[in-house]
Design a protein that fits this description.
It contains six helices and no strands. The chain is mostly helical and 206 residues long. The chain is rod-shaped and about 90 Å long.
């Protein structure tokens, strides 16, 4: 039984180690994506709005060549491509495009949410296994095994500490990326409304 508990503890620490590597990889990937989009958005968002209000829709397609990784540039090119469809069809098309951009931007963020919610429980499982091992040794070795028992309890508590150490920054990153996602989607929603207003003006000959 002791061997099984020891294997269980090692498995828990291995899982948490793997979870931390995955969390770092996702954080770097999404961090670069959101950093790029926020930076480019700050540069071109105002220009896109100004062009839509002035009716200069044909020039919106140029952004995608310079900033192909930007959600703002992709959305501007999409407006340019489908602007001639008319106000009502354009509204439905942009709804679909907004969903597409949201799916792209929030890709893998769910991994952070999952790790943040479950890492403490994984650590707690390691603690439970360690305490079971400690009591097993205490029952087997008696008072002579006090040192072994204390080491087992110490290792058990370390599992919970590792779980919290992973969960806290992961939850913070998840909240940070969710806020960035919300900001970008709100800006794209503004662009969609500006595009609909421009389309209505175009149809009415204003």
């Amino acid at each position: 039984m002791e061997n099984l508990l020891t294997l269980g503890e090692r498995a828990i620490f291995s899982i948490m180690g793997l979870a931390s590597v995955i969390a770092v990889a996702v954080a770097i990937d999404r961090g670069l994506i959101f950093r790029h989009n926020m930076k480019i958005g700050g540069l071109i968002f105002g220009d896109i709005v100004a062009k839509l209000r002035s009716g200069d829709v044909s020039s919106l397609g140029g952004y995608i060549k310079e900033y192909p990784e930007s959600a703002y540039a992709r959305f501007a090119a999409f407006i340019n491509e489908h602007f001639s469809a008319g106000e009502r069809p354009l509204a439905h098309l942009m709804e679909g495009k907004l969903i597409e951009e949201r799916i792209f931007l929030e890709r893998r963020i769910i991994v952070l949410g999952t790790l943040g919610n479950n890492a403490p429980f994984i650590g707690l499982l390691g603690t439970v296994l360690g305490i079971i091992k400690a009591f097993y040794n205490l029952g087997t070795l008696g008072n002579t095994g006090a040192e072994v028992v204390m080491r087992s309890i110490s290792t058990a508590l370390l599992a919970t500490a590792c779980g919290l150490l992973i969960a806290i920054p992961v939850v913070m990153l998840n909240n940070f990326f969710s806020k960035r996602l919300k900001n970008i989607m709100q800006n794209l929603e503004i662009l969609s409304r500006e595009a609909l207003a421009a389309s209505a003006k175009s149809e009415n000959g204003i």
